Amino acid sequence: MNRKRHVRRVVAAVGMLVLTSGIYLGGLQASGNFHEVKAGEFYRSAQPSPDALSRYIDQHGIRTVINLRGASPGRAWYDDEIKVSAAKGVEHIDFPMSDRAILSPERSMELLALMRDAPKPILIHCKAGADRTGLASVIYLQQLGGVDEETAEWQLSPLYGHVALPGIGPYAMDTSWEDLEKVLGLDS
């Protein structure tokens, strides 16, 4: 009898954890997963709707949008993003990368240079604003934002919807960061 009760409690606890996590992650997506990374300089989000993009530009003075999904002419989300950016006089940059493929240190350095040289404030996004955007945010904060490595790494965490376990796709972003850390001479 005690064993059955214990098993039920464990199953209930795991169920509550899964439910709570699902509600949290759903809330991130419903909110557009928009976050200030460095005030007045760098912001991150999921794929913004045209209205959300217009609002972010107006409220935060965004001067550059970096799309980590890559150019997709003819797709509504992309065409709308280009249209809003052009109408607002905002530079739009496509930097294609996959959340399921390791970004080489060379490509990571290209992204770093792009973020360094782009007019600020920057809004960077991917589809969910969790994995690719998380990696870009870690790189930006640690290399350009004057933030220590440990603090910067929180950008690539479940707080922003990034769930990485070895063997699943988004883990490639963690591996990409670890590879770049070695090139940069950072302790990990």
Automatic annotation (TrEMBL):
Belongs to the protein-tyrosine phosphatase family. It comes from the Bacteria. One of its GO terms (molecular function) is phosphoprotein phosphatase activity. It holds the Pfam family Y_phosphatase3. This is Protein tyrosine/serine phosphatase. Residues 106-141 form the Tyrosine specific protein phosphatases domain. Coiled coil: none annotated.
